[in-house]
Amino acid sequence: MKIAIVDESAARASIIEEGLSELDEPEIHILTQRQGLLARIEEISPDIVLIDLGNPSRDVLEEYFTVSRALAKPIAMFVDQSDDDAIAASIDAGVSAYVVDGLASNRIKPLLDLAVKRFNAFARLQTDLAEAKGKLAERETIDRAKRILMDSKGVTEPEAYAELRRKAMSSNRRIAEIAEAVVTAHDLMGGK
């Protein structure tokens, strides 16, 4: 497992590194500079990113949230103190685990596991949502194509659907593809 530890304090980073000693030969990269952080993390391409901020200012916190939004990786963030706004911002930024006053070596491994599991669960939800939106868009296109056929040919809805289905089967394509072609052709011909 490739792990990036982001911490400006080498002493605090060593606490996190010690907590990772239970893992089976992890490849650990410690990043202590904020400058060019996103590029360095992308270059390393870690499986997970652990960020220890200690007691960050609002600007520093927002800077790290920007990094979090750009990465499609599980991220665990450690801070000494927090407020409701920072917690809400961490969720919006895609931070998988936001740990307040919890930097202890014996807690690192369970928190790493939590961050990975939450990230994977959220990724599954995003995939399901994208799939549902895609199906809804296809359904809307099919419904529009049926209306076009009903208006132009004077057929019923079941007949319009049957025609779309026949064309899809005869051309070995999906009904949604045929419907998209009907809608596109209608739009090109100036239909409304």
TrEMBL record:
The modification 4-aspartylphosphate is found at residue 52. SMART domains: ANTAR (SM01012). Residues 2-116 form the Response regulatory domain. The keyword Secreted does not apply. One of its GO terms (biological process) is phosphorelay signal transduction system. Keywords: Phosphoprotein. GO terms for molecular function: RNA binding. Pfam families: ANTAR. The keyword Ribosomal protein does not apply. Residues 122-183 form the ANTAR domain. InterPro entries: ANTAR (IPR005561), CheY-like_superfamily (IPR011006), Sig_transdc_resp-reg_antiterm (IPR008327), Sig_transdc_resp-reg_receiver (IPR001789), WH-like_DNA-bd_sf (IPR036388). It comes from the Bacteria. This is ANTAR domain-containing protein. It comes from Alteraurantiacibacter aquimixticola.
